[in-house]
Fold:
Amino acid sequence: MVSEQIEKRGINNKKILSAMLDIPRHLFVNEAQREYAYNDYPLSIGEGQTISQPYIVALMTSLLELKGDEIILEIGTGSGYQAAILAKLAETVYSIEKIEVLAKRAMSVLMMLNIKNVHIMVGNGSIGVQGGSFDRIIVTAASPDLPEPLIEQLKDDGIMVIPVGEKYSQMLIVVKKKHGEITKEEKGGCIFVPLIGKYGFDSQFN
Ligand code: SAH
Structure:
């Protein structure tokens, strides 16, 4: 998976490659899917949700430009796989998941792997963490626009990676904050399940 799908597509950061070699992706999918866990596509994790394609996990991780001392906020824990990769490359990961059974399953896999610097919370991540402030924010669900609270919770010199667009097709956007100014860069098309909530789709779910 790492050499064929990640390295050959141009992601050469040694730390990212080694994190992806270390983390056993098959533990993050249910048993019926295990034989497909290292294939080049997203997989269902139940509850209508998915674990992202391995390359997308690597790409989003590399766009975060991690040095190792960052506090990261992830919106959309899902299986917990992306959070596990980030945990190897940063100081602390806070991850919010709206579906409790997924959050609990992710917590138990991370515990099994003895990963202690990921903190999973159940809730609506489209509003982030009130009063929070993060070096990096990664949104792994599709948003119709940049959620204002997440922009506010991004520290200066911070980077946010987020898929923005229609419900069934989006553009991966890198948002950087410097001296309070926001810049946006497009990094290619992608397809994520929708972010639900006030700053996502289906805003009636607050
Ligand atoms: N990063 C995950 C994949 C995420 S799939 C992984 O590595 O497996 C997107 C997840 O976002 C789904 O589990 C979905 O339930 C969750 N989600 C959608 N809207 C949300 C919201 N407003 N707050 C928190 N989680 C949300």
User: Anything to note?
Assistant: The two ends are 38 Å apart (CA to CA). Strands lie at 43-46, 49-51, 71-75, 92-97, 118-122, 134-139, 154-166, 169-178, 181-190. The pocket of S-adenosyl-L-homocysteine is lined by residues 49-52, 75-76, 78-79, 81-82, 96-99, 102, 124-126, 140-141, 193, 195-197, 200 (CB under 6 Å).
